[in-house]
Amino acid sequence: MTETTRAAKNTGTVRAAGCVLWRRVPSSPEGIEICLVHRPKYDDWSHPKGKLKRGEETLAGAVREVLEETGHHCAPGARLDTVHYLAQGRPKEVTYWAAEATAGVFVPNHEVDQLLWLPPAEARPRLTQPRDRDLLDALLTTRRTP
Q1: Comparing C-alpha atoms, which of 93, 87, 18 is closest to residue 50?
Q2: Mean predicted lDDT score pLDDT of the chain
Q3: How far apart are CA 46 and CA 90, in angstroms?
Q4: pLDDT tens for residues 76-131?
Q5: Domain CATH for 46
Q6: Distance (Å, rounded) from C-alpha 97 to C-alpha 13?
Q7: Residue span of the structural domain in which 37 resides
Q8: What phi and psi values does residue 144 have, to the nearest 5 degrees?
Q9: How far apart are CA 78 and CA 69, in angstroms?
Q10: pLDDT of residue 90
Q11: What percentage of the chain has pLDDT greater than the value 90?
Q12: What's the gap between Cα 100 and its chain centre?
């Protein structure tokens, strides 16, 4: 058990992971599009993410959640931020990676009923939470850094 896992377990923190999923689109002004998912339970637009399984490493959980929520495989890149917030009265921490979409097809399910691919400028206002906009900024900064 890692120190982070032990600390989260001791504090009751819900641990989760996800990705800011993107794909190359030469016709887009920024050359990429961002994947946003709509979760009907919360009626929000966000990046794909979800709770880690017992003993699961964060990166493995992030890749699994992307596949489960979007139907896409991905190639993880730079680690982005870990965000902390309260979810249903409990502390939650979600660790994110930048990830390029590879192959896959979205099929609506009970967790995610819609998926959009948007240029970053259009994705930004669609994201429900400001913390998700910060993650989009982090991805764009990472992509500009040589």
Answers
A1: 18
A2: 92
A3: 19
A4: 999 999 999 998 899 999 999 999 999 999 999 999 999 999 999 999 999 999 99
A5: 3.90.79.10
A6: 20
A7: 3-144
A8: -85, -20
A9: 20
A10: 93
A11: 84
A12: 12
Cα 89 → chain centroid? 21
> Which residue shows structure tokens 């990429």?
32
Is the predicted pLDDT of residue 4 greater than 80, yes or no? no
In whole angstroms, give the CA distance from residue 87 to residue 114. Answer: 22
Element (H, E) at 140: helix 130-144
Q: How far is Cα 47 from Cα 126, in angstroms, rounded to an integer?
A: 11
Are 78 and 96 contacting, i.e. CB atoms less than 8 angstroms apart?
no
3-state secondary structure 55-107: CCCHHHHHHHHHHHHHCEEEEEEEEEEEEEEEECCEEEEEEEEEEEEEEECCC
Assigned token pair, 89: 């009265």
Say what the pTM is.
0.89
Query: How many domains in the chain?
Result: 1
Listed residue (140, 131, 129) closest to 42, CA to CA: 129
